[in-house]
Specification:
single chain; 4-stranded antiparallel sheet
């Protein structure tokens, strides 16, 4: 079975930076797209960024464009999210996920999910 494990979440001050990592494993791991979603307390899970696993195309939510950068290391089955100039509204549990269909922001198109890592941004 495909497993996803996020790490790197922490408590930071507004304006600070964090780098999240997602380690994927499993003999059947072969996604078309890998992405990051986040879910704040009391809110629905929302799209953050995605990248084509065997390509270079990326897609960002408007709220994070210019501040966050998604990247990957195919040889290590690793996905990353560099987050700069963090804001209190970025506070959420961040999840990595895989899709077999396309570069997409649609939550239902992602099938494998990690357990999440908490990011908290103080004012």
């Amino acid at each position: 079975q495909v497993q996803m494990v996020e790490s790197g979440g922490d408590l930071v001050q507004a304006g600070g930076s964090l780098r999240l990592s997602c380690a994927a494993s499993g003999r059947t791991f072969s996604p078309y797209t890998m992405g990051w979603f986040r879910q704040a307390s009391g809110k629905e899970r929302e799209f953050v960024a995605a990248i084509v696993w065997n390509g270079e195309s990326t897609y960002y939510a408007e709220s994070v464009k210019g501040r966050f950068t998604i990247s990957k290391d195919n040889a290590k089955n690793m996905l990353y999210l560099q987050m700069n100039n963090l804001e209190p509204d970025d506070t959420a549990v961040y999840y990595c996920a895989t899709s077999s269909f396309r570069l997409s922001s649609i939550r239902s198109e992602y099938v494998y999910w990690g357990q999440g890592t908490q990011v908290t941004v103080d004012s």
